[in-house]
Amino acid sequence: MNIEQQLETQLAKAPVVPLIGASDPAVAVKTANALSAGGLRIIEVVLRTDEAVDCMEAIVKETSGLIVGAGTVLTVEQAEEVISRGAQFVVSPGLVDEVAEYCLERSVPMFAGTMTAGEVQRAYALGLRTVKFFPASLAGGVPMLKALSSVFRDMRFMPTGGVSADNLGEFLAVPSVIACGGSWLTPAAEIEAGNFEAITNLARAAVTAASAARP
Questions:
Q1: Which DSSP letter does residue 181 get?
Q2: Is a pLDDT exceeding 80 seen at residue 82?
Q3: pLDDT, tens only, 60-73
Q4: Do the beta carbons of residue 188 and residue 23 sit within 8 Å?
Q5: Which of 74, 60, 80, 79 has its CA nearest to residue 20?
Q6: CA 64 to CA 59: how far, in whole Å?
Q7: DSSP-assigned letters across all residues of 130-174
Q8: Helix (H) and strand (E) counts for the chain?
Q9: Of 28, 47, 121, 194, which has the fewest CB atoms closer than 10 Å, so is most exposed?
C-alpha cells in the first residue's frame, strides 16, 4: 500500500488532520501520541517555529502507526528538507507551481492551499486532485466549497482555518471534503500544562463528530 492509499484509508476512518505547532521535540512526540490515542493518526507539523522540522522528525522516529507530514511549507528548499527528514506528505498555505511540481515528481502527496476558482483550476492543471481550502472560514466556508465542487467535480478539498468542533460536521457533510484540518485539537494552554489527556479527549470527540457527519 503506497502513501496515498494509506492516507485514503486513514482519512476514511477519521477525516480530521490535527496541526501541531511545537518548539520542543519531546512535547511534540507526547502531543502526537495523545492524538493517536484519541484515534487521529495523520499528523501535520506546521513550520511555524525554528525547531518545527526537528519536532516533525522526532515524531517520525519515536512514534509508530502515524502518518506524519509537514505544513506551512513555503519553498522548494523547505519541501526538500522536510521530505529528506521523513515527511510523508506536504501542505502549503498557498499554491506555488515549483513546490507542487517538486512533490509530484517525487510521488509525495501535496496539499496546496487554494481559495479561488483560479487557484483550484491551476492546481488541477498541475495534476493535483486534492487541495487545501484555506483559510476556510474567510474564503467563503461551506457555501464556497459547494460552489467550487460543482465546477471542479474531480477535485477534493481539505478545509483548514476556522474549522472547529462546532462546525466540523458542516464541513464534512460536503461530499468533496476529504478531511478537515485544524489546531483546535492542540490548544497551547493544555499542552503547556502537560495535560495531554485533554488532547486525547479532543481527538476522540472529533472522531465521534466525524462519524456522526459521515455515518
A1: E
A2: yes
A3: 999 999 999 999 99
A4: no
A5: 60
A6: 9
A7: EEEETTTTTTTHHHHHHHHHHH-TT-EEEEBSS--TTTHHHHHTS
A8: 10, 9
A9: 194
Distance CA 51, CA 23 (A): 5
> Catalytic residue at 77?
no
Q: What integer best gives the mean pLDDT of the chain? A: 97
- The whole-angstrom separation of Cα 212 and Cα 204 is 13
Nearest to 72 by CA among 183, 172, 154, 215: 183
Confidence of residue 215 (pLDDT cuts 50, 70, 90): confident
Whole-number Å distance between alpha carbons of 141 and 115: 10
CA dihedral 52, 26, 35, 196 (to 10 degrees): -120
E strands present in 31-109: 42-46, 67-71, 90-91
Give SS3 for 194. coil
Q: Which of 44, 146, 170, 192 is flagged as catalytic?
A: 44
Q: How far apart are CA 97 and CA 122, in angstroms?
A: 9
208 three-state secondary structure = helix
Catalytic residue among 132, 170, 190, 197: 132
CA-based torsion, 64, 67, 72, 75: positive or negative: positive
Whether residue 171 contacts residue 151, with contact meaning beta carbons closer than 8 Å, is answered with no
H-assigned helices in the chain: 3-13, 25-37, 52-62, 76-84, 97-105, 117-126, 141-151, 168-172, 188-192, 196-213
**Are the C-beta atoms of 56 and 68 separated by less than 8 Å?**
yes
Contacts of 119 (CB under 8 A, 6+ apart): 94, 95, 113, 131
Q: Is 51 a catalytic residue?
A: no
